[in-house]
Amino acid sequence: MTVVEKKQPTDRLQENLSQVQRLIERHRLVEDLVHRQEMEKHDLVENLVHKQNLVELQHKLSQLHPADIAHILEALPLEDRLLVWDLVKTEQDGEILLEVSDAVRETLIESMEQHELVAAAEQLDTDELADLAADLPRQVVYEVMGSLDEQERAQLQSALSYDEDRVGALMDFELVKIRADVSCEVVLRYLRRFDELPSHTDKIFVTDEEGVLKGVLPVRKLLVADPDALVQDVMATEVVTFHPEEEAADAALAFERYDLVTAPVIDDKGLLIGRLTVDEMVDVIREESESEVLNLAGLKEEEDLFAPVIDSVKNRWAWLAINLCTAFVASRVIGAFEGSIQKIVALAALMPIVAGIGGNSGNQTITMIVRALAMGQLQPGQAARLWRKELGVSAMNGLVWGGMLGLLAWALYGNLALGLVMVAATTLNLMLAATMGVYIPLTMEKFGKDPAVGSSVMITACTDSGGFFIFLGLATLLLL
Question: Which residues form the CBS domain (predicted)?
């Protein structure tokens, strides 16, 4: 009996990427040889390139899922990315464009002709087209809309009327709905008329004649119910619903909290207008997580790994400029105590430790606060209580770790007073970090700003300048 080794999804992704990269390298190598050949031999070698390497690469790509191809495209430099993109099957273009990051999607769309974009967009469902429409040229969107029927056009216009971070922009229009006054046997016969059910169909939506949502009938309950039982006797009436104007991030949290696969979207009158599916919510959660990581680092937007230098500079310069200003302030704080440092050289070696541990502690606090705000767990009225708690944590950490640093300073420099200054400075800087870690994101939230944007840069600036000032100030007062 042969045992087949199962590979983890990440391992398969890396293996596929490595194979594609090897094929591209072989293609580039032979292509380089082509240019070295005499003109009369050029056609022969060129045929060899296309028949052996490009065909093999195209065959490899044809075996991959669109999401795997998207991963490969994101991991390739622009020249290789466009080579692979030209070899992808045309019928996969639309799905791949949905899967790649915004930055990579922009490079792919720029390389495509208008008729290619139209063909790719026409392969998508209405809700998928709504996701992609914002990145497509306006003329392409108009041309695709002209090919839709009246119902699909109305659905697309409805989805496009909402901001991309709202439920209405993400809702799916493919769903199964029934009336409450029919039997389960009738519902089963109705379902058998479908070639296939819409993806992620775990429940059937029950509406009245006017389309008002009355409940849901889980498929697992339908399959075991008495065929003669009426839907209204079997259906669930306590249903998690969403409105199209709600934030998608809040809907994603609800999906996570209630373990939802699908959920209905209703308007103000209770009319069923669409549904949310778990795959869209997973994408929202992933994007929110990536955005939070980028914002904490002071990056304005997602960046193509192989973007042109000037694009990366534009994305990063703003917070680097702010960081430069804060670093200058920190240097002026040090400059104000030059006399103290000259008299006690050990201060120069020890002060980065105080600033560094404060920055780490502040980043821990600020990460926790930003997460709590994103999860809806923290209300403004709880700020003072949370601040007191964080002060307690920082004071205890300061005494413990500051004490260890103080003992180390005493042992190294034989100066007990210097050790006590280390204890006091470390504790006070950790308390400063706790205060800033709580109130920086809360203040940004109060003024309608994203609390994650540049928070780590700001907290580091506070703990650096504050740590230098506290440590050198105490040393000046107590040691000189």
Answer: 235-291
Residue 35 CB-half CA count within 13 A = 5
pTM here is 0.74
CB atoms within 10 A of CB 427: 22
CB-count exposure of residue 142 (10 Å: 0-12, 13-18, 19+)? exposed
DSSP state of 277: E
What is the full DSSP assignment across 420-478?
A: HHHHHHHHHHHHHHHHHHHHHHHHHHHTT--TTTTHHHHHHHHHHHHHHHHHHHHHHHH
- The helix (run of H) or strand (run of E) holding residue 304 is none
pLDDT digits (tens, 9 = 90+) for 19-68: 888 888 887 777 676 666 554 455 555 555 556 778 888 889 999 999 99
> Three-state SS for 161?
coil
Strand, helix or coil for residue 203:
strand
Other beta carbons within 10 angstroms of residue 191's beta carbon come to 15
Q: Where are the alpha helices (DSSP H) in 375-415?
A: 383-413
As a whole number of angstroms, the distance between CA 378 and CA 358 comes to 24
Domains by residue range for the chain, with CATH: 9-166 (1.25.60.10), 177-278 (3.10.580.10), 309-479 (1.10.357.20)
